[in-house]
Write a structure and sequence with these properties.
Layout: E1 3-16, E2 19-25, H1 27-30, E3 38-42, E4 53-56, E5 59-61, E6 66-72, H2 76-82, E7 89-96, E8 108-114, H3 119-130, E9 134-141
Parallel strand pairs: 8-9
Antiparallel strand pairs: 1-2, 1-7, 2-6, 3-4, 3-7, 5-6
The structure holds flavin-adenine dinucleotide.
Length: 143
Amino acid sequence: MAKQIQAKLIEKTRISKDIYKFKIQADEIVKDSKPGNFIEIRVSQNTEPFLRRPISIYNIEQEEGTLEFIFQVKGKGTQILSQKQEGEKIDIIGPLGFGTFKIEGYEKLAIIRRRNRNIPTIRTCKTSQKTKQTSTNISRIQK
Ligand SMILES: Cc1cc2nc3c(=O)[nH]c(=O)nc-3n(C[C@H](O)[C@H](O)[C@H](O)COP(=O)(O)OP(=O)(O)OC[C@H]3O[C@@H](n4cnc5c(N)ncnc54)[C@H](O)[C@@H]3O)c2cc1C
């Protein structure tokens, strides 16, 4: 079930000019999270921007209770988010979405993704490696 938490930003990495990776402490969300889930982030305590921003869960570490997400600065919301500093708390709701279907029990997987839309599939690939499944990751498919 989705929960609203104040998650501490424990690691902020600037991957490129406008792309960031955040690692947050989110035990309550991590324990219920499945590959393909996303979170909703309240980027500001003010009413502007009013709506939460949805961001996919890129990775989780069950034992640590940590969650990572990667985002590109697009507009006002992600711009404000990119200015958060390590140690700050971030208001998030999650896990949300149905996630990918259960992948255990299948011998081979074909993971199909669009270029630059690969964040949720990375965790599916990682899970398939843990369960020793063969996964074929097909990317660079244009719409
Ligand atoms: C389920 C889900 C998962 C997602 N996961 C990820 C993820 O893992 N990583 C990620 O980077 N993104 C992800 N996104 C996309 C992300 O939510 C959006 O990029 C983010 O909400 C943009 O918010 P923003 O406030 O920065 O931009 P907004 O201000 O909402 O702007 C969005 C776009 O509109 C343009 N725009 C804004 N105002 C105007 C205007 N006045 N005139 C013209 N154009 C304008 C902006 O330039 C921008 O391109 C996901 C979205 C969904 C629905």
